[in-house]
Amino acid sequence: MKVLGVMGSPRKKGITSTLARRFLKTASKLGAEVEAYNLNSMKYSGCQSCNTCKTGSERCIIKDDLTPLLEGIHSCDLLVLATPVYYGDVSGQFKLFFDRTFAYFDENFDSRIAPGKQAVMILAQGNPDHFLFADIHPRYQHWLDSYGFESCELLRFCGSRQDTDGEKLHAAMHKVDELAKLMLK
Question: With contact defined as beta carbons under 8 Å apart, do 116 and 41 qualify?
Fold first, then answer.
């Protein structure tokens, strides 16, 4: 199984990155081929709304550090999307990346992604209130569903400012391991 991780946090040692790395490490231990992209260390731009991916090309024509990542999603079996919650939404780094997935639709808005892939979305937010920002995952799941992903599991960590290495984080790490085992069955 090929697992591709998209790390959307600017903080390599933050909660989001820690949880995502743990998932990828567990997947690797279970025999998966793992590849990870740290968006904050890459040079790329957002979608330019040129629509060339609808009229003249089946791929995004922008050639930058996102090119191999966007290609890799075509060949992966499991996509891990990890982002902190900033100002009530995904990080800017993540949003720029995700906008570029617009190229996965053809001119009729049919998906160019082979159906049956799975996804995991890891969200970490400083605010401990689980009701706040609960709308993020469904919005991104909508697009993954439209691309033909079979499932999109969610792992949320709320209250990351209050618990950076304590019992709550330990419990989240256990959930990450269990989710990886479930997804890689």
Answer: no
In tens, the pLDDT along 158-175 reads 987 655 557 888 889 999
What is the maximum span of the chain, computed from C-alpha positions, in angstroms?
Answer: 52
| Distance between CA atoms of residues 71 and 65, nearest Å | 11
Whether the full predicted model's pTM is greater than 0.90, yes or no, is yes
Query: What type of residue sits at position 164?
Result: T
Domains in the chain, CATH or no CATH each: 2-183 (3.40.50.360)
66 token code pair: 């996102």
Q: What is the DSSP letter of 126?
A: S
Q: Two tokens at 145?
A: 């569903």
DSSP state of 166: S
- Computed from CA positions of residues 86, 13, 31, 181, in that sequence, does the dihedral angle turn out positive or negative? negative
135-168: b (≥16 Cβ within 10 Å) or e: ebbeebbebbeebebeebbbbbbbbbeebeeeeb
pLDDT digits (tens, 9 = 90+) for 113-157: 999 999 999 999 999 999 999 999 999 999 999 999 999 999 999
3-state SS, residue 177? helix
